[in-house]
Amino acid sequence: MDMLYISDLYKRFSDKKVLNGLNLSVPEHSIFGFIGKNGAGKTTTMKMVLGLLKADAGEIIVNGEKVVYGQTTTNRYIGYLPDVPEFYPFMTAAEYLHFCGEITGMKRTENEERCKDLLELVGLGNETHHIKGFSRGMKQRLGIAQALLNRPKLLICDEPTSALDPVGRKEILDILLAIREQTTVLFSTHILSDVERICTDVAFLNNGVVGVQGKLSDIKTRYRSEEYQLETGNDTDMLILQQTFPNMQQIGRNQLVFCEGDYTVFDILRFIAGKHIALLKLERAEPTLESLFMEVVEK
Ligand SMILES: Nc1ncnc2c1ncn2[C@@H]1O[C@H](COP(=O)(O)OP(=O)(O)OP(=O)(O)O)[C@@H](O)[C@H]1O
């Protein structure tokens, strides 16, 4: 089942068209990377999923229920982490999380247990300082704990790693990976290496529509590269290959890349065998998410 389903979503701000018939299917228990350049419309889409912004046209379904603008009933399924989460700076993480639990009407013992578990999950179990001294990464982690408080079926994170250093990013990504069994995660980003690291599914948002979406592994197979990389054991062998096959390009020490359109693998292998060239590696180049994204954006 799709935890989130969006069909033909349109949105414009005065004369600026932002969403132009967006379709999105987020499968249950996926970690879904919603990828788009700055200003592509990711936050706009998320605000509409939360019922905070009115769509011009289209339908949004969360856990089988239609989202209605201005109503918050479907938000009982959703936990939301905004790009810059705000807290009461004079509280500790535990005080803040307990306070949120109280507001949502959680019973005292349940609240205490839940807060303890969540603070441990996000690595703030022993943190006693006030939030005002927290780093950005700590605030994001507390934000995730807050968003998970009511055991949402869908966790939406708006660019959760954008402002973080590599250590902070890894901590957030590890948490998102760890909660996959409990919830479905939709996160927007333009950091493609983060997506490669943890996402099961992706969608590329461009010009107001989703250009490509699906399982990351399927997409990589579908857009399989026609390039091969090879590595020789020494400089001389590399030069022989380069002179014989001038369209081969050097990409590193003794490393060459060639396109199937220029030479067949069979021809290359036959030549290598005939000349007794020391071959250390020959493999089809994996398409990177970046090259796929550029292909979608440039279409
Ligand atoms: N309330 C608004 N009024 C007018 N224009 C808006 C409004 N909200 C968003 N926009 C415009 O809509 C476009 C999409 O914005 P949005 O914040 O959804 O993009 P985004 O993909 O989340 O980008 P970023 O990665 O920079 O956060 C931008 O050009 C933005 O300026």
TrEMBL record:
Highest taxon in the source lineage: Bacteria
Example of a GO MF term: ATP binding
Stored Pfam families: ABC_tran, DrrA1-3_C
Assigned keywords, A-Z: ATP-binding, Nucleotide-binding, Plasmid, Transport
Occurrences of domain ABC transporter (ranges): 4-232
Segment forming the signal sequence: none
Gene3D superfamilies the record matches: P-loop containing nucleotide triphosphate hydrolases (3.40.50.300)
Annotated SMART domains: AAA (SM00382)
Entry's family note: Belongs to the ABC transporter superfamily.
Protein name: ABC transporter ATP-binding protein
Organism field: Vescimonas fastidiosa
Native organism taxonomy: Bacteria, Bacillati, Bacillota, Clostridia, Eubacteriales
